[in-house]
Amino acid sequence: MNENPLQEQGRSSKTIDPCILVIFGATGDLTKRKLMPAIYNIGREGFLPSNFACVGFARKEKSHDDARNEMKEDINEFSRVKPVDEAFWENFKEQVFYHQSEFDSDEGYEKLRKFLEELDAKQGTKGNRVFYLSVQPKFFPLIIEKLKAHNLVYNIHEVQDKWSRVIIEKPFGRDLDSAIALQSHIEKFLDEKQIYRIDHYLGKETVQNLLVFRFANSIFESLWNYKHIDHIQITVAEDIGIGSRGHFYEEEGLLRDIVQNHMMQLLSLVAMEPPVNLSADAVRDEKVKVVEAMRPFTEEDFTSFCIRGQYGKGFTDGKPVAAYREEKDVAPNSNIETFAAVRLFIDNWRWAGVPFYLRGGKRLAKRATEIAVTFKDAPGILFKHQDHKNDPNVLVIRIQPDEGISMKINCKVPGPESPIQPVTMDFRYGSYFGKSPPEAYERLIWECMMGDSTLFARTDEVTNSWKLFTPLVKYWSEHPPQNFPNYEAGTWGPKESEEMIQKEGRSWRIL
Ligand code: BG6
């Protein structure tokens, strides 16, 4: 018999209960690119429980061995550490299984339950389950209902000797009504404690570091408010297009795909008050308060401070790329946005009057996600006679790539003439810590197995965010754009986005 590769390692100081992870949508793109490599890496680094199994659930016919071979290929292609470590893999693969079924087949769920019970007996997984729903959102209600009907998830008030948790991929709803409807459906079958709404941005090291940066350093807190901060820019720029996700994008668009969730998570972490402790609820209580305090969009905002765009053809990395309307599964006259820029305000004491400018887009000039905090100008009294650029201080938190934090300060150029010039102090994760951070999905799957939901979105975070964005989604669908495509692939988006911020006397950072 193979020895269990995880038995010896156990490098984590925290222990995870034995469990089985079942992935619905096991043949999908996310599973291939992110989930399978993540599970392998958690295992390879010794963070999986000793008694563990992973079962892929999908509609295609496939043997356990086929699934294992495909997983190995996925790891070799997409893992942050590759190629596969053969010695580890030989034993690890024995913990990977596949179960074929339609999502609506009662027989399929019955067989799954029996199969998992057999695995419990063989692998010592003790009835504990994580179900990861990496499927189209329309299947969420059905799968959760079936899991409950077939006793695959347990009532937490009746069953205490084993646990079951469900990870739900985004998007959670398409607007406020659908998010509320989805929530009321699933809470018939699951307790909130069992629901893990994933927003993978929360699993990124640099995003987690936001809390540490803000609350483990005393120097920033006294400056972190309307008295000292002029404005904050949050950018989520991607150079890639929509790839093979035409169907998804035609349904969702960038506002739902990126702004309503990933960008709002970044904004909440930057703007929240210190939590009373680091428990899941204490942290999420403070994040919710930020979203609750967001000023609703007005009619004027819709026309002047909410900009949408769609890419036309252009160049990425010097190579010609197609327009959005020419992508696979996209309508030739599609009005879906692939770019959005909005101005937001948080109407609370700390942030009174401070604009938050958010921009996100596909096929922009480069991949860069960052938060830039621009401080108010120093009074220009002392150096106004000298020929210098009095730039404001800017603190930049680079989420990816080139993860790090930099601070722009003004400095005297050496020499008698003494002009003043902005310079940058820079901290880089890569060169300081000397290793690549784990992928967000590794951290999040691990946290769910640990039973810690701090890094997952709570229902009120999601619904409050929808409350803010639903009127905009509605306005945009009722007022189709007249000028799409309105930016060339490989640029920084439509000129209206520049105009939006310039008319307030500011400009987007050049990245
Ligand atoms: C996903 C979006 O949630 O995040 C994608 O659906 C986007 O459209 C992706 O490309 C970006 O993730 P990351 O981790 O590469 O910033």
Question: What can you tell me about this protein's structure?
Answer:
It contains 15 helices and 18 strands. The N terminus is likely disordered. Helix 1 packs across helix 13 and helix 10 packs parallel to helix 14. It has 511 residues and is of the alpha/beta class. The termini are far apart. The chain is globular. The site of 6-O-phosphono-beta-D-glucopyranose has 3 residues, from loops.
Number of distinct helices = 15
Number of strands: 18
Backbone structural class:
alpha/beta
Measured between the Cα atoms of the first and last residue, the distance is: 55 Å
Overall average pLDDT: 93
Helix content: 25-40%
Bound small molecules, which ones? Answer: 6-O-phosphono-beta-D-glucopyranose
What descriptive keywords fit this protein?
eight-stranded mixed beta sheet, 511 residues, binds 6-O-phosphono-beta-D-glucopyranose, disordered N terminus, alpha/beta, six-stranded parallel beta sheet
Helices and strands in order:
Blueprint: E1 19-24, H1 29-44, E2 52-58, H2 64-78, H3 86-92, E3 96-100, H4 106-123, E4 129-133, H5 140-149, E5 164-168, H6 176-186, E6 195-197, H7 205-215, H8 218-221, E7 229-237, H9 246-271, H10 280-292, H11 299-304, E8 306-309, E9 311-312, E10 314-316, E11 319-321, E12 339-344, E13 356-361, E14 368-375, E15 394-400, E16 404-412, E17 420-428, H12 429-433, H13 440-450, H14 459-478, E18 487-488, H15 495-502
Parallel strand pairs: 1-2, 1-4, 2-3, 4-5, 5-6, 7-13, 9-18
Antiparallel strand pairs: 7-14, 8-12, 10-11, 12-13, 14-15, 15-16, 16-17
Bound molecules: 6-O-phosphono-beta-D-glucopyranose.
Residues 200, 238, 257 line the site of 6-O-phosphono-beta-D-glucopyranose.
